[in-house]
Amino acid sequence: MGMEWPPAPTPALQLQRKAAAVGGSALKLLLFVILAGLALRLLAGPAAYLLPPTAAPDGAARLVAAPGIGRTGGGGTPPSEADDLIFAVTGSGPLTAPDKKEGSPGKNCNLFHGEWVPHLSGPAYTNASCRFIESPQNCMTNGRPDSDYLYWRWKPYGCDIPLFDSKEFLDGMRGKHWALIGDSILRNHMQSLLCLVSKVEDATVVYHDSTFKSRRWHFPSHNFTVSLIWAPFLVKAKIFEDDDGVSTADLQLHLDVLETNWASQWESFDYVVISTGQWFLKTAVYWENGAEIGCHSCKNKNLKEMAPEYSFRKALSAAFRFIVSSPHKPVVFYRTWTPSHFEHGEWFSGGTCNRTSPFKPGEAGDRESDNKMWKIEREEFDKAVANKGPNGSADCLKLLDTFELSLLRPDGHPGPYRTYHPYEKGMTAKVQNDCLHWCLPGPIDAGNDIIMQMLAKD
């Protein structure tokens, strides 16, 4: 059974609420001092009229959080009350970009550049209320002991993003077909979407393949369909790997041939979320024009060693070329690279992710490899938008740039809680961590908030 909601407040959240409680008195005092100061300046002479306006909207104070470092029960150092979440009341600060007003996003608001701020009301759904959360992402049921990671929301600088409105979304999608095409991060994203919309209407499974990696759901009252299509490379691939990442042979990637399981269904889609990424870092043999051209870290030493950046760029180019040249024009959101947060090793060498709070901007460190792949995505996306192709425009192609908001959430992964109660036999157990996918509810929900805002702007 899932845990009922909300969980008992942690000391960190109690500290938040204390801060909020005293905020009213502090705000009154602050406003009195400001008004008194302005009155004195007005009496001083005309120069007073040159004072810049205060940056805080309607005189409101904001809460700014500093992240902690450890996860209780996960092998990390338990954070204290003081260093887990430290709040200060500020009148103007880093949450607001210069010369921008707070409020709903306007045309000039960058939805993808901002930071995570406290959100005391918590998530829109729970692990008890949503049946679509799969076991590896069901962190609370699997025994994750902390819950502070649930109480943050993504805030672009200078504006706010309204939370996902399930009823409005479903009403606007009557008779439509959404497809989520890509890897397991897209499956993670799909779970989030289903959890959000199922608050209004529950979905019925109408199709699944033999592995359950490709599936389809239908919402009968709204005649709304959601398809999940497994295509981790977007191009044709022969994969010899089990669910634990163990391979019996090298991947075979045909970089100039699209995976037919999504391309063949293209004309049935009205909206698409498409993404690829981390799979390109795996050992693989590369094919073009029906012939082997090289490989990445493969066992066949007769093949030319090639960087994964090459295959990533080629696959994206092929996918974007198909999208912009196709006569059928669904609205397509390309979701950008998701960085992992393994520390002290990788997934195969004991890496962990025990943090319990988001990074502040600048704290994530040098991410040369992640930034390199992210740059390739944006370059290929820009080329596709600039090249309208023979069948019309690329206006249907939208960039869902979730890189920054993902990078700042090292606390949002299952970590050791990808399996049920991993420390049941003791805290010294060696446990495989997942520092790439996201707990549900969790940070990945923000992607759907942003999609809804992008739909509203259009």
TrEMBL record:
<keyword id="KW-0472">Membrane</keyword>
<keyword id="KW-0808">Transferase</keyword>
<dbReference type="GO" id="GO:0000139">
    <property type="term" value="C:Golgi membrane"/>
</dbReference>
<keyword id="KW-0333">Golgi apparatus</keyword>
<dbReference type="InterPro" id="IPR026057">
    <property type="entry name" value="TBL_C"/>
</dbReference>
<dbReference type="GO" id="GO:1990538">
    <property type="term" value="F:xylan O-acetyltransferase activity"/>
</dbReference>
<dbReference type="InterPro" id="IPR025846">
    <property type="entry name" value="TBL_N"/>
</dbReference>
<feature type="domain" description="Trichome birefringence-like C-terminal">
    <location>
        <begin position="161"/>
        <end position="454"/>
    </location>
</feature>
<dbReference type="InterPro" id="IPR029962">
    <property type="entry name" value="TBL"/>
</dbReference>
<comment type="similarity">
    <text>Belongs to the PC-esterase family. TBL subfamily.</text>
</comment>
<keyword id="KW-1133">Transmembrane helix</keyword>
<keyword id="KW-0812">Transmembrane</keyword>
<dbReference type="Pfam" id="PF14416">
    <property type="entry name" value="PMR5N"/>
</dbReference>
<feature type="domain" description="Trichome birefringence-like N-terminal">
    <location>
        <begin position="107"/>
        <end position="160"/>
    </location>
</feature>
<protein>
    <recommendedName>
        <fullName>Trichome birefringence-like N-terminal domain-containing protein</fullName>
    </recommendedName>
</protein>
<dbReference type="Pfam" id="PF13839">
    <property type="entry name" value="PC-Esterase"/>
</dbReference>
<keyword id="KW-0735">Signal-anchor</keyword>
